Amino acid sequence: MKALVYQGVEHLTYEDVPDAAPDIGEQLIRVEAVGICGSDMHAYLGHDARRPAPLILGHEAAGTIVGGPRDGTRVTINPLVNCGVCPACEAGRENLCPSRQIISMPPREGAFAQYVAMPDANLVEVPDHVSFQQAALAEPLAVSWHAVRLGLEALHQGMARDALVIGGGAIGVAAALALAAAGVDDIVIIEPNDMRRAYLQSLGSFNVVEATDDTFSLVVDAVGYSATRAAASHHVQPGGVIVHVGLGEDAGGLDIRRMTLQEITFIGTYTYTAEDFRKTAQAIFDGRLGPLNWIQERALSEAADAFRDLRKGAVAAPKIILAPWV
Amino acid sequence: MKALVYQGVEHLTYEDVPDAAPDIGEQLIRVEAVGICGSDMHAYLGHDARRPAPLILGHEAAGTIVGGPRDGTRVTINPLVNCGVCPACEAGRENLCPSRQIISMPPREGAFAQYVAMPDANLVEVPDHVSFQQAALAEPLAVSWHAVRLGLEALHQGMARDALVIGGGAIGVAAALALAAAGVDDIVIIEPNDMRRAYLQSLGSFNVVEATDDTFSLVVDAVGYSATRAAASHHVQPGGVIVHVGLGEDAGGLDIRRMTLQEITFIGTYTYTAEDFRKTAQAIFDGRLGPLNWIQERALSEAADAFRDLRKGAVAAPKIILAPWV
Questions:
Q1: Domain Enoyl reductase (ER) spans what residues (chains A, B) (predicted)?
Q2: Does residue A18 have a cis peptide bond before it, meaning omega lies within 30 degrees of 0?
Q3: Which of A34, A126, A174, B188 could bridge across to A61 with cysteines, CB 3.0–4.6 Å?
């Protein structure tokens, strides 16, 4: 099969590799659409020790089951594989399983390829009216759905529910959509990149600004850098909640003094539970997350260019979806 | 009346000052016992811009109402004064009231004095079997009661409830007592000061260690420095909760990468709600917070020495209680 292989810092090759080989309990999936995640970019830049070269990256995929009783079934992939029997798994917190794996991290190859192998339990069937591109968005949307759920659960009932989302990338846009689906009306996205901001504004679905002086009961840091955490701890209201997604910088930024004096809660979030993933997929299928039209499609064979353009900040759309078969 | 006046960095005077003068709705309290808090020490060292000299510090007080229909009533004082009508107050989060005041911070003088004035609503009657020294502990105990309540409420139901308390000062000891009162069995206190640790161990009520390799579902940082926050984010289990009390250093220490990958929640906490204060006082009265025998009594007239001894780390007991009338 053809695959995009991460060979080292800022070096990707599109080449023939052995076909993905499903293990017992796994399905072979013909990948029809696969998104580029910020964490793929992080690995591409050599910043993720968990993703050593050579490696097939990519974990936001949808496609079709090949072979077996479910041959031809259209599915979206929950890329998080867990043990199922530890206390975290039994508590429905599969993302905290000590044995968790994710495709695109050894020992599992990723989905920037024509095929990928995946446990059957990780596949969510996709109805015909939903495109593979939309279905591939289930993964990043689930990240934000999960983060927003934790944030809203932690928010004191006595507070008005309004939200600031820091960052207009896919996770930020997905957070705004998850917040709207959860009934939050007043949602502002901060996006400093002029081109990205203009693109999002042109869609007409989001309130996107360059900066704000307001404070909010819930702040979603959808970037994860020291500067964005500083902004989050500045813009959150007393008694409010910061939800943190992203691994931009390992430490720093939070105004702990203010967070202590004003009783602010900070929640680190990572991926999603299996239930959150299923609920997100269902929300996509039901149209509750909007038209999902904030994507740009490119060929997997030209993905090296896509990574270079993303690196330059020259992509307006929050998400590039790669097509392995064009 | 006699009072201890903070005159500038590490400079306290014991002198005659005008008697406290209750405003409308306030009571005059004859102070019988008043504790020294870490925040008094912080102010004494010139580190608290909210407490400029000259000022009477002290906010952990119990005493007797003087004059009026309740003359002679023994009370402990909730030192936090709030507006009562803002959204935070209406939500029962008086500690987040934007107009909140606390005695020992302008415009309110503190309780390191023979008398203090206080709104009647802030007074909790103390039964005769409880000493003024025990009653004066209501304030620091309420800080930890509140912090522990928020932490346990945030803890996922799927996790075992065990706790690490960082710091064996009054807030740490109070946190351990509040945790035990809440039904948590496995509680470890870390205290690096040999003298303090030996003192707490000698009481027989606490599991106090110099260091630990274990992890815990709940970690209470009862110190609030960068190093203690680093320890907290190291010792908390995946999916667990850090509760943060204290204003030692304004920023730094948290391992945000680990907190994100392992979904750790950090809750800044400050003082207590009015309900938490009342519940803490009742728990003291009911004996649910133990014998409260971890105090050392001194005369207010000799408080300058007490501050110097605390500064040197030469006080074994977690709490010094001052007596204004001896």
A1: 8-322
A2: no
A3: A34
CA dist A52 and B245 (Å) reads 40
Is the model's pLDDT at B247 over the cut of 90?
no
Strands (E), B205-318: 208-209, 216-221, 236-244, 265-268, 295-299
**Closest Cβ opposite residue A263 in set B95, B255, B261:** B95
For residues B206 and A57, give the distance between their C-alpha atoms in angstroms, rounded to a whole number.
50
Residue A275 in any domain: the answer is no
B256–A252 C-beta distance less than 8 A? yes
Domain that holds residue A36: 2-137+292-323
In our burial notation (b when 16+ CB lie closer than 10 A, e otherwise), range A304-313 reads eebbeebeee
DSSP letter for each residue of A169-192:
SHHHHHHHHHHHHTT--EEEEE--
CATH number for the domain that contains residue A83:
3.90.180.10
8 Å CB contact between B106 and B98: no
CA distance A156 to chain B (A): 9
pLDDT tens readout for residues B284-314? 999 999 999 999 999 999 999 999 999 998 9
Nearest one of B65, B68, B64 to B132, comparing CA atoms: B64
Reported as a pLDDT band with limits 50, 70 and 90, residue A249 is: confident
Q: What amino acid is encoded at A42 in this protein?
A: H
The rounded distance, in Å, linking the Cα atoms of A237 and A226 is 19
**How many helices (H) does chain A have, and how many strands (E)?**
10, 17
Domain boundary among B253, B268, B283: B268
The strand pair at A162-166 and A186-190 is best described as parallel
Q: What is the pTM of this model?
A: 0.95
Taking an 8 Å cut-off on Cβ atoms, the answer to whether B263 and A93 are in contact is yes
Count: domains in chain A: 2
ipTM: 0.95
Q: A171-182 burial by CB neighbour count: b if 16+ within 10 A, else e? A: bbbbbbbbbbbe
Question: Do B9 and B107 sit in the same domain of this protein?
Answer: yes
Residues B158 and B63 in one domain: no
Considering the domain architecture, whether residues B123 and B170 belong to the same structural domain is answered as: no
For residue A223, the chain B residue with the least C-alpha distance is B260
> Residue B264: what residue type?
I
CA dist list (Å): B280 to B64, B152, B164, B177, B232: 19, 16, 21, 11, 25
Measured between CB atoms, does B157 come within 8 Å of chain A?
yes
Q: Which residue of A has its CA nearest to B238?
A: A96
Question: Do A127 and A15 share a structural domain?
Answer: yes
